[in-house]
Design goal:
It contains eleven helices and twelve strands. It is an alpha/beta fold and 293 residues long. The chain binds nicotinamide-adenine-dinucleotide. Nicotinamide-adenine-dinucleotide binds next to helix 5, helix 6 and helix 10. Nicotinamide-adenine-dinucleotide (NAD) binds next to helix 5, helix 6 and helix 10.
Length: 293
């Protein structure tokens, strides 16, 4: 990929994104390349724009000369109808977290899927992935589920307090990956499903600073069950601490956040990012020890 420009204007559209780490992650990486890159947050709450207004905002950014945008909650699906083209991954998922303006066209990508896949392969190398239980079937959950089925998970059990959401995600996964690969669990079968699983992925907001706590009973973890967390603020969620203390191979949510940013940086600039340096930046930004593979 060739670099078409010597400076870049990028940003993030979403609601309540003031504390986002994306500006710092992208701008620090650009500094390492000796590149001028500005990354602005376009917070729809602060701007008084409804989520449905995302199309106008994307068009305005394009008119103003932005090279690309990240898109987050609640606009990842709503933005699709306003784009000229989708990558195969974004099309399969039905959600876009990165838009690139190139050659007069707007192209939607999804680097949450590729970000989780790289983070998983780096952080939990060689773990069995045949049977996985996933808590949470929202935006992050859908991306993670696609990544897991891409990585070869045979049976993905989805659990969500909103059972319809888990069922709808299972249905759309089976349509894309083939029948029987994903299934929504009833709350009563969760214990047995985790007992039979190789690994557990957590993709609900539980464990974030404003949603403290554990998303499942502590006694369901065991040392031969790997645990992958998606929450990354804080990096050391209650689940991550419990999983480590239990002896589970454990992955926190930081590397997914970094690899999705690194993939977006590559799409925006055409330059190869340094994810290991970006991981150091993330740890620095959230005040945590540097995550090791
Ligand atoms: P979302 O609101 O789209 O989905 C969350 C889902 O979890 C909902 O379907 C909800 O019903 C379900 N849920 C809530 N509590 C539950 C519980 N106790 N048990 C079962 N299901 C429960 O949110 P999202 O965008 O998917 O984000 C989820 C988390 O992932 C957030 O903490 C977010 O910060 C994090 N995230 C991390 C990354 C990363 O790069 N590491 C990327 C995206 C999101």
């Amino acid at each position: 990929m060739s670099v078409a420009s010597s400076s870049y204007l990028t940003g993030l559209i979403g609601a309540g994104i003031g504390p986002s780490l994306s500006p710092a992650l992208h701008e620090r990486e650009a500094d390492r390349h000796g590149l001028r890159l500005i990354y602005r947050t376009l917070d729809i709450n602060a701007l008084g724009i409804t989520p449905e207004g995302v199309g106008d905002l994307v068009r305005a950014a394009r008119t103003l000369g932005f090279d690309g945008l990240n898109i987050t909650h609640p606009c990842k699906q709503l933005v699709i109808e306003h784009l000229d083209e989708l990558s195969p991954g974004a099309e399969a998922l039905g959600a876009v977290n990165t838009v690139v303006f190139r050659g007069g066209r707007s192209i939607g990508h999804n680097t949450d899927v590729t970000g989780f896949a790289q983070s998983f392969t780096r952080g939990l190398p060689g773990v069995p992935t045949g049977k996985v239980v996933q808590l949470g079937a929202g935006g992050a959950g859908a991306a993670v589920a696609h990544a897991l089925l891409d990585l070869g998970t045979d049976e993905l059990i989805l659990a969500d307090i909103d059972r319809d959401r888990a069922s709808a995600l299972a249905q759309s996964l089976n349509k894309h990956f083939g029948p029987g690969r994903a299934r929504a669990a009833t709350p009563s079968e969760l214990t047995a499903r985790i007992a039979a699983a190789d690994g557990l992925v957590h993709a609900t907001p539980t464990g974030m600073a404003d949603h403290p706590g554990l998303p499942l009973p502590a006694g369901l973890l065991r040392p031969d069950l790997w645990v992958a967390e998606v929450v990354y603020r804080p990096l050391d969620t209650e689940l991550v601490r419990l999983a480590r203390a239990t002896g589970c191979p454990t992955l926190d949510g930081g590397a997914m956040a970094v690899f999705q940013a690194a993939d977006a940086f590559r799409l925006f600039t055409g330059l190869e990012p340094h994810p290991e340096r970006m991981l150091e930046d993330l740890a620095d930004l959230v005040g945590a020890p540097i995550p090791q593979p």
